[in-house]
Amino acid sequence: MKNPAYIVGAFEHPTRKAETKSTAQLHAEVAYGALQDAGLQASDIDGYFCAGDAPGMGGLSMIDYMGLNKLRHYDTTESGGSSYVIHVGHAVEAIIQGKCNVALITLAGRPRAEGMQTGTAVRSFGAGVPDESFELPYGRTIATMHAMVATRHMYEFGTTSEQLAWIKVAASTHAQYNPHAMLPKVVTVEDVVNSPMVADPLHRLDCCVISDGGGALIVARPEIAKTLNRPKVGVKGWGEAYKHQNAGGIDLTYSAAAMSGPMAFNKAGVKPADIKYASIYDSFTISVLVQLEDLGFCEKGKGGQFVQDGGLISGVGKLPFNTDGGGLCNNHPSNRGGMTKVIEAVRQARGEAHPKVQVPNADLVLANGKGGNLGTRHGCGTVILERE
Amino acid sequence: MATQAFDRTPQAPAESPDNKPYFDGCREGKLILGKCKDTGKVFHYPRHVSPFTLSNNVEFVEAKGTGEIYSWSVARGKEPFCVAYVKLDEGPIMLTNIIECDLDALACGQKVKVKFRATEGDGAPVPMFVLA
């Protein structure tokens, strides 16, 4: 046992449309699933982590709903879809500091059942948000803001729509083996670039799905992980970073992963070339491209060449990614994809991914989450996991 | 192919004491930047706190209202319009719309100039840009 903490439980909710379940119920169901996976009891949980998708004040209502009675550590760090990747790092640190032994992290939501137009509606966080006076009048959406990242990438580096499309092709190639995937049909580059334009230069098939569901993780200290009958997946490196408009000095060509990635690699003492599998947050195809570059899997500006011709397809390319189909094809519960990124990375590290997409001897894997808006302000969390 | 930008009426910006100098400027047809007097650097969006030093040693200055498109996208749909980041000649990049343009002929680097657009109700006008 050479890592400071271990992901001992991981569970992804099978639902993609939860019309008859509440958000609180989904949180509890994924928590139970992760406990079952780990072979632990609810009474073992002494640390709880959740983010803005949890109903109520922070996590207090969920602690009440789930009847968690032994908590001595609690963290509601909110960074959108990257929260849960960041929570893994925080859980490891809490365990190192002796604040808890068994940390539960949950995510759940039902935007699909609620009819949310996630990417194309103008969203507000309510009164008093200082930046919104300078943004809402312009009708900005998640889609147009990410699209501007793509426009600038194409302008500076010559990236093409066809190269971005390869990211979707890879995700769909993997999704065909996932019985729960919302979009299990394999698509071609032509399918992507011929799908309707949503926000130039992003087409409908450059965008992730809107789905209900959730996921949970359990992080435990080595002494506990040792006693459980599951593969030992240690957290070897972790990092978090935040990026914003920088007072008018925004540079759209990179994400906060340019900072969180090196933190995680330094902590783990490994290099990008050592990583056998990567889960990369895929709200849009362009999100993946920018993160791959920022994490050092290829040079800045060379992401297009890296992903084209099946570069991300398991068994074909240099770096198998999102073998569950990712947000682009599988699911994007509560519009927050970081949790499922970690879960598929755990499956790969355990050797429990679908046999058609399992990477041989995936003993060193990475998951990166991005949350908030790539075109305005966001946070990234990176974790590097090692199977012992 | 040419697609004329839809002339949408923007929602009114939420005004506050913090952003008052900016929207007062908009009502007078002036594009306002924040300026940090500690560092001499200008910034967008204007606020009463310097995003460089966190001090309140700031003033508000008028920009020329010219710049170039840093990046852009078109929200497609029945009423298509352009969302853009414009890099002002003074340096800061601001979120805006490019209006009165052919949405199929936009490019990074195109020169633009400010044009104020009325918003809903009695809201302050907001700066948008047309091709220069």
What this model shows, in words?
The complex is a heterodimer of chains A (388) and B (132). By secondary structure, chain A is α/β, with parallel strands linked by helices. Chain A has one domain: Thiolase/Chalcone synthase (Peroxisomal Thiolase, Chain A, domain 1, 3-Layer(aba) Sandwich), CATH 3.40.47.10. Chain A contains twelve helices and eleven strands. In chain A, strands 1-7-4-2-3 form a five-stranded mixed beta sheet, sandwiched between helices. The model of chain A has no long low-confidence stretch (mean pLDDT 97). Chain B has 132 residues and is mainly beta. Chain B has a single domain, classed as OB fold (Dihydrolipoamide Acetyltransferase, E2P) (Beta Barrel), CATH 2.40.50.840. In chain B, 6% of the residues lie in helices and 37% in strands. Chain B contains one helix and eight strands; from the N terminus they run αββββββββ. In chain B, strands 6-5-4-7-8 form a five-stranded antiparallel beta sheet. Chain B has a three-stranded antiparallel beta sheet with strand order 2-1-3. In chain B, a hairpin with a 5-residue loop joins β1 and β2. The relative contact order of chain B is 0.24. At the A-B interface, α4 and β5 of A face β2, β4, β5 and β6 of B.
